[in-house]
Amino acid sequence: MFDRVVRLGALLTVLFILGPLVVIIGASFTTTPFVAFPPQGFTLDWYRQLMGKPDFLRSFLDSVLLGVATTAGAALVGIPAAIGLQHSGVRGRAALRSFVLAPLTLPTIVTGVALLQFYYAIDLDAPLAGLLAGHMLVTIPFYVRTVGAALISLDPSLQEAAESLGAGVLRTHLRVTLPAIAPSIFAATTFVFITSFDQVTISVFLSSPDLMPLPIRIYNYIEFAVDPMVAAISTVLILLSFAIVAVMQRLLGLDRAFIGGGN
């Protein structure tokens, strides 16, 4: 009886998660000039209209560029920070960890307004640099938490063995620690890229007409029209997310990527 209840609960949870996705994907094929589900008829016209929107394509490329740059920058800061917080014997390490993770506890709208005021005070006229700094600020904690959890579960004897064989600290981390926690690093990288790509609250304050990420382009578009082309855009993003997850499963396996350091 208990097993049936658990299975029913799992099934309802899956339906609750997938239900909105099914509605959005189905509505992207409707022939009506408004979002409708079940779709009325079948057409690909909304996808053709999307392909004819160069501003959306440009915003998509801007989001990809920003996501890649954010991922690289957050990795360069977050991974060494996680290793340092785990292995250093500095006093007040818990307080320092809380400080690094603080952006996760702040509402992103507060962070966005604060960054906007700060950039205005220093007269920063570089939208890409401003967006990159803002996205890194809210994504570095993903590396610190995910990599930190993997380091906790990592067998310390691996590093001790490397050091006993004459490897220095840097070589030990590069040849032993990082390969051992590679699945967790890959998982954090995926989280960071998707978070940056979908970031609205920070981007809405820091974007400009010349540099407008895709979520902000969609937000501005639906202020004036809510037609099935929005569903078509959403469908493309849904399929992109599924593709990323499929690549993760193919390369590492979801169980290794999300649980521990791959030991």
Describe, in plain words, how this protein is organized in 3D.
- The protein has 263 residues and is an all-alpha fold.
- The protein has two domains: 1-43; 53-258, MetI-like fold.
- Helices cover 75% and strands 0% of the residues.
- It contains 13 helices and no strands.
- The radius of gyration is 22 Å and the shape is globular.
- The model has no long low-confidence stretch (mean pLDDT 79).
Topology, pairings included?
Layout: H1 2-27, H2 45-51, H3 54-87, H4 93-100, H5 108-121, H6 127-153, H7 156-164, H8 169-180, H9 182-197, H10 201-206, H11 214-222, H12 228-251, H13 254-258
Helix pairs in contact: 1-12, 2-12, 3-6, 3-9, 3-11, 6-9, 7-8
Which keywords apply here?
single chain; 263 residues; mainly alpha; MetI-like fold; 2 domains; globular
